[in-house]
């Protein structure tokens, strides 16, 4: 078959330098280090900030804008990914990557300065400043995530890429371990501002490596830029992400007019985008790529993988907090076993793909293990031992690990050299969209399931209990439902705090009684509903003469104190029973809810596996052989381009 032609506007792809052949290995490693550092910046920023957010919100007085610190970063980062990918194909990876790092570092510095006096009321104050600057960070970070993976395809032969793509997956895993620990340390010992300032030295080192050692890595093509397509990508993805974010929030809901209008705007932009892309000579996302089975099935699989992957991390943390009793501040590091499995799976699968020369079977094995991990997690209950949860997390991580780098490898191996940037970034874009949509769907499942599970489990706990305990359980059920709708947002109260509240209440009551006795008038106390009924009746039978002498008043107080002590002891006993029953009921409800989410995750992961099955199992050419291209897809001529 004949080779399809590159876009017009410049020299042919054959004129492009084959960097995989001409660059010394040492230079490649230096480029790799700089690229990994840049990617580490982006990955770290997504985890390091979460630990510091409570302190940031307290300092900047912006609890009502809490979620937007993350949302602004997500919106800008996701929307720009395909645009940067296309620009890197036209202008080269180096200038786009350096631009992204510079913008990211500028955003980091400004985030650290948010709320400082010299910024005044810019954008309305400290919290809004942080949100705007986080958006700027995301604008730059999108270049890091979209271009970094394409650089591997530029400087290494197809058969070598696997071992290095695995390192990129490991970077994301490593950042999820280091981020919460470093964020907590900096916030507690220096200042939350250093959570952002720490990016500056790492970024400058990355810039030094990239500026001094990386060639331009351009395709040699100079087609017209698809400005309309770029705008439509933004007007489609941003409203869609906003609609998914608002729809999952109780104050909006999916039928809110604002949410529906955002969905409608996204749909109109998508239709316009498809129309424009089908007619532009060098579109942001060439629709012809979807005629390539590896690309089409690969990005579909990454969409479902993104949904399942983020759901695994997010809701596993909630389970650990609400059922296993891990503190909220430690929830990020509690998923370290999953991360360790992910790193091992990512690196090992990349090495195996490079040695074996094929990737499809490794992806299928990983997805099958991922499905097995989700099945194990779907068996979680309120009594699952923590050691078993760790084992399940490792299995899931080992399954997710191979898919992250190998899908990128498969897509890069199946497209033309001048399409690697846009194809790689498109895969990343679909994965991030899957993560956002998956989070919204799973969040809706969490809210709706808890709404039925909590009352059901509390009704079961009330069976056979005294009336006083049942009344307290009903109050606890209402509080637990409110906490569930907030998705377990804080540390649960301990029994010590409950007991201390009871003790303080009885001490206050005795103080009121003591004042009344010393004053010689008990009439107000006999009408006080907060006092035990037996005590009120006893107070009514105390003769007035008993309060006329010091000795008489002391005797009355001793009698009342004894009764109050007995009442307090009974109240603590009932509270202990209510606390144990309500804690158990909420844990069972939450565990049942999370297990249901993981049952759905099995289905989502199965869809990713089914999308992988039709992908061609193409061989990865070794250095000097040339890339065989997408076999059977009319691109066999790629061998002349790669070798």
What would you call the structural class? mainly alpha
Averaging pLDDT over every residue, what do you get?
A: 79
Number of domains: 2
Helix content: over 70%
At CATH level 3, the topology of the largest domain is Growth Hormone, Chain: A
Write the H/E string, N to C: HHHHHHHHHHHHHHHHHHHHHH
Give the total of beta strands: 0
Strand content: under 5%
Main CATH class of the largest domain: Mainly Alpha
Shape: elongated
Distance between the termini: 18 Å
Query: What's the Cα radius of gyration?
Result: 31 Å
Largest sheet: none
Give a description of the structure:
- The structure is a single chain.
- The protein has 22 helices and no strands.
- The chain is an all-alpha fold.
- The chain folds into two domains: 206 residues, Growth Hormone, Chain: A (Up-down Bundle), CATH 1.20.1250.20; 271 residues, Growth Hormone, Chain: A.
- It is elongated.
- The two termini are 18 Å apart.
- One of its GO terms (cellular component) is plasma membrane.
- InterPro entries: EmrB-like (IPR004638), MFS (IPR011701), MFS_dom (IPR020846), MFS_trans_sf (IPR036259).
- This is EmrB/QacA subfamily drug resistance transporter.
- It is found in: Cell membrane.
Helices and strands in order:
Elements: H1 19-22, H2 25-60, H3 68-91, H4 93-113, H5 126-155, H6 158-189, H7 194-197, H8 199-213, H9 227-247, H10 257-277, H11 293-322, H12 331-334, H13 336-356, H14 360-377, H15 386-414, H16 420-462, H17 467-485, H18 495-519, H19 523-526, H20 533-540, H21 550-612, H22 638-642
């Amino acid at each position: 078959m004949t080779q399809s032609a590159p876009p017009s506007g410049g020299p042919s792809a054959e004129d492009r330098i084959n960097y995989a052949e001409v660059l010394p290995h040492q230079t490649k490693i230096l480029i790799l280090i700089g690229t990994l550092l840049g990617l580490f910046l982006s990955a770290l920023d997504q985890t390091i900030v979460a630990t510091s957010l409570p302190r940031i919100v307290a300092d900047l007085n912006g609890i009502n804008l809490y979620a937007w610190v993350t949302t602004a970063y997500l919106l800008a980062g996701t929307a720009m990914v395909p645009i940067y990918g296309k620009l890197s194909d036209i202008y080269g990876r180096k200038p786009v990557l350096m631009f992204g790092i510079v913008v990211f570092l500028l955003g980091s510095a400004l985030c650290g300065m948010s709320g400082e006096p010299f910024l005044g009321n810019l954008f309305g104050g400290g919290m809004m400043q942080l949100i705007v600057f986080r958006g700027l960070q995301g604008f730059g970070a999108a270049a890091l995530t979209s271009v970094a993976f394409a650089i591997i395809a530029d400087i290494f032969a197809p058969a070598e890429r696997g071992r290095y793509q695995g390192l990129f997956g490991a970077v994301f895993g490593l950042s999820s371990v280091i981020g919460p620990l470093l964020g907590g340390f900096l916030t507690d010992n220096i200042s939350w501002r250093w959570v952002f300032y720490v990016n500056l030295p790492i970024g400058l080192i990355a810039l030094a490596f990239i500026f001094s050692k990386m060639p331009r890595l351009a395709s040699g093509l100079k087609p017209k830029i698809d400005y309309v397509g770029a705008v439509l990508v933004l007007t489609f993805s941003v409203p869609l992400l906003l609609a998914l974010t608002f729809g999952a929030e109780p104050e909006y809901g999916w039928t809110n007019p604002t949410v529906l209008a955002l969905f409608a705007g996204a749909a109109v932009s998508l239709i316009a985008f498809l129309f424009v892309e089908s007619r532009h000579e060098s579109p942001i996302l060439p629709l012809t790529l979807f005629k390539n089975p590896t690309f089409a099935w690969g990005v579909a699989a990454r969409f479902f993988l993104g949904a399942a992957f983020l759901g695994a991390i997010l809701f596993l943390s909630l389970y650990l907090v609400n059922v296993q009793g891990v503190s909220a501040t430690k929830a990020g590091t509690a998923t370290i076993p999953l991360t360790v499995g992910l790193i091992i799976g990512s690196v090992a699968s990349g090495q195996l793909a490079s040695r074996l020369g094929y990737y499809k079977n490794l992806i299928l094995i990983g997805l099958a293990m991922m499905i097995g991990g989700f099945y194990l997690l779907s068996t979680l209950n309120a009594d699952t031992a923590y050691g078993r949860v760790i084992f399940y997390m490792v299995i899931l991580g080992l399954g997710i690990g191979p898919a992250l780098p190998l899908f990128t490898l498969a897509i890069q191996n199946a497209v033309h050299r001048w399409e690697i940037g846009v194809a790689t970034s498109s895969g990343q874009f679909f994965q991030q969209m899957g993560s956002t949509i998956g989070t919204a769907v799973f969040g809706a499942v969490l809210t709706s399931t808890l709404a039925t599970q909590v009352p059901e489990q509390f009704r079961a706990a009330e069976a056979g209990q005294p009336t006083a305990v049942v009344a307290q359980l009903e109050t606890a059920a209402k509080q637990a439902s409110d906490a569930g709708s907030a998705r377990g947002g804080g540390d649960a109260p301990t029994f010590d705090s409950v007991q201390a509240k009871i003790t303080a209440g009885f001490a206050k009551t005795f103080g009121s009684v003591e004042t009344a006795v010393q004053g010689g008038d008990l009439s107000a106390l006999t009408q006080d509903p907060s006092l035990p009924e037996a005590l009120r009746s006893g107070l009514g039978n105390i003769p007035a003469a008993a309060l006329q002498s010091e000795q008489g008043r002391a005797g009355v107080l001793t009698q009342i104190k004894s009764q109050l002590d007995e009442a307090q002891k009974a109240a603590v006993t009932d509270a202990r029973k209510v606390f144990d029953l309500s804690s158990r009921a909420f844990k069972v409800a939450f565990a049942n809810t999370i297990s249901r989410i993981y049952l759905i995750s099995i289905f989502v992961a199965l869809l990713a596996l089914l999308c992988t099955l039709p992908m061609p199992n193409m061989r990865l050419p070794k250095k000097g052989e040339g890339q065989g291209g997408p076999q059977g897809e009319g691109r066999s001529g790629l061998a002349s381009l790669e070798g």
